[in-house]
Amino acid sequence: MLEQDNAQWGLVHAFVLDGKGGARALARQQLDDLAMLPGESLWLHWDRGHPHAQAWLREASGLSPFSCDLLLEENTRPRLLPLPDEKLLLFLRGVNLNPGAEPEDMVSVRIFAAAQRVISLRLRPLRATEELIELLAKGRGPKTASELILALADYLTDKVDALVSELSELVDQEEEKVDADEHYSPEHGALLQMRRRAASLRRFLAPQRDIFAQLTRNKLPWFVDDDADYWNELNNRLTRYLEELELTRERVGLVLESEHRRMSERMNRIMYRFGIVTGVFLPMTFVTGLLGINVGGIPGSESNYGFMVACLIMGGLAVGQWWLFRRLRWV
User: Fold this and answer.
1) What secondary structure does DSSP assign to 109-144, as a single string?
2) Cα–Cα distances in Å, from 13 out to 31, 47, 139, 184?
3) Angle between helices 227-291 and 145-180 in degrees, nearest 10
4) pLDDT of residue 83
5) What range does the domain containing 212 cover?
6) If DSSP codes are grouped into helix, strand and coil, which group holds residue 96?
7) How many domains does the chain have?
8) Does pLDDT of 89 surpass 90?
9) Is there a single domain that holds both residue 178 and residue 319?
10) CA 25/CA 3 separation, integer angstroms
11) Whose CA is closest to 321, among 293, 298, 271, 287?
């Protein structure tokens, strides 16, 4: 019931982290006069496309117009922007796991983070926030604002792993079929789609790796002591995923190249056979055409053995061509 009331205002989730791994939910009306205890942190998760959410962000959030413009911008890319007073803006992307959506279509979350406050915005539902809320309900969630943004980044990165593994397995299957059956012809449309998906994912996720590297190096005072190690681990994991995506693109290219080479060799063999057949029958066609002219004076036309002699000449031509082709190693 509380979430339904909040949804009318564009507020997807509102929690106060208790600093111990748990959280209590808030109603939209409680935000105006909210008082937090030491060690608590506020997390507000808004629907970026809702008019009430946009109005609250500009009028009641306390953020600068510049920050609001960036958070509500229509199109953006993964980025990290430090703000005055030890605050930051963090834009992250993840794979789209919503029903009926293409995973490489991507979802994004835009985050404003301070020492005791995190404001996140999404346009489409995020599985990462749902799993994070389940942990908070069990008392095993993030304790601080820094752990909260780290957990969001971690869950978004986790979703990439399954998609990268799926693409790699599809390429493995195609390679095994090509190696096992020389007559197998892979579907070019499916291979090109796999290559496009890998390229699209890599294009969107590569900037995010740089963000994780920046967060590893540039530690804010309100970050937990070991946060840098976890950001570094995220950076290493995402680097591995990007390398897998690049390898997937190259492997798809090799399968397509192998199939193209195989088709070229097959076509060359066919054309070679056609050439041999044409070379054998062309002289005989000339002889039959010459002897078939309906004019007088054709040699052997008055002899009973003329037809036999013509057949022997054509047979001799065929044998002579076969011997010549063998000597030239054409057959």
Assistant:
1) EEEEE-SSEEEEEESS--HHHHHHHHHHHTT-S--S
2) 12, 9, 17, 52
3) 20
4) 92
5) 2-262
6) coil
7) 2
8) yes
9) no
10) 9
11) 287
**Could you please report the per-residue DSSP string of 166-232?**
HHHHHHHHHHHHHHH-TT----HHHHHHHHHHHHHHHHHHHHHHHHHHHHHH---TTS-TTHHHHHH
Q: In Å, how far are 121, 123, 194 from 46, measured between CA atoms?
A: 5, 9, 34
Q: For a pLDDT cut of 70, what percent of the chain falls above it?
A: 91
Token reading at 223? 């970050």
CA-closest candidate to residue 186, choices 267, 261, 243, 247: 261
Question: Computed over its alpha carbons, how large is the radius of gyration of the chain?
Answer: 36
Same domain, 244 and 313: no
Please give the Cα distance from 200 to 95 (Å, whole number): 11
| CA 287 from centre of chain | 64
Q: What is the DSSP letter of 48?
A: T
Q: What pTM was computed for the model?
A: 0.75
Say if residues 117 and 41 touch (Cβ distance below 8 Å).
yes
Q: Give the tokens for residue 258.
A: 């192998």
Same domain, 169 and 313: no
Residue 158: which pLDDT band, with cuts at 50, 70 and 90? confident
Q: Kind of pairing, strands 41-47 and 23-25?
A: unpaired
Q: 């803006």: which residue's tokens?
A: 89
In a domain, 219, yes or no: yes
